[in-house]
Each structure stands twice: as C-alpha cells, then as structure tokens.
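User: My instructor asked us to take a sequence, write out its structure as tokens, and then describe one feature of it. I'm not sure where to start. Here is the sequence I was given:
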Amino acid sequence: MDARNTGGGIIGAGAKAMTTLILDTNVWLDWLVFDDARLAPLGHAVDTGLVRLHATAPMLDEFAAVVRRPHFGLDAAAQGAACERQRAAVVLHAPAADCRLPCSDPDDRMFIDLAVALRVDWLVSRDKALLRLRRIAQRRFAIRIGTPEDWRAAQMPPPIIDMTPPARP
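Assistant: Let's start with the prediction itself. The structure tokens for your sequence are:
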C-alpha cells in the first residue's frame, strides 16, 4: 500500500484518514487528570481510532513524575490510573535524534524531536517554547504545532456557504 502524509492524516489505498499526534505533558494532564471538557473531542477521536498518539518512554516518565507532585492531590491509585490510561493510548517509540529545530526549553526537545522523526500531523501543546516553533516546523517538516483548541478547529469542516443568488420577487 502506498501511504503518504497529507498533513491531515495517513492516507493509503482504501484506508481512511488517521491523524497522528504527539501530546505534551500539559495536554495529557488536562485530558487524563483534570478531565478538561475541551479535550473530550480528542478522547473521542482516540477511542474511535481516528487519531493515533505517539510517545517515548521519557515522555511517559515525565508525565508519571508530574502526576506524583503533591499539589495535584492525587492518591497512588489515581496516579496509577492516569499513567495506565496514557500507556494504553500511545504507540511507544525509542527517543528520536535531535531534529535541530531551535527549541528554547531543553525539556521540550523530546516532543519536537519525535514529531519530526515520525512526521506526525500535529504536536499538540500548551507550552510556549513549543508553540513558538509553529511556523518553522510547518515550513520545514509539514508538522502542525498548536493548542488543543487549534487542533479541534482544524478538524471542523468549513461552513457551507450558499452562493445561490436570492430569488427575485
């Protein structure tokens, strides 16, 4: 099968589009810990197979370390449940090589490096250092970087505008 990245998903002969994404830690927290309603469309897309999420072990480790922070107030069971949901939702990859994009936060390198290595459709983030890479990542690698709201807006079909002239009386 000849598959190609069309910017919206992986398309092949007879296959339906599947969007490939990487989520940063803040987006995972919003979805799995805070149950943010704005992430419900993403959860639905994952559950129905319209979206495939990708991660590395260091990304999973970072999430696990963050959910253990006392200010989140999660007991061990809730921490474990959040980590298990994350692990179940992702395709796991080895860490990627440095893609040489100029990311100002070294902790965010793993997200942009994997996004470039896999040529995912979207890196969904709330992190300012990653969001600053939007234009260059799109131009050089055809990877969209945006907030969950940006991703959701891109999934909406454009409105249908009736261009038929009104009937004359």
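For the description part of your assignment, you could build on this observation: Confidence is low (pLDDT under 50) at residues 1-16. Try explaining in your own words what that tells you about the chain.
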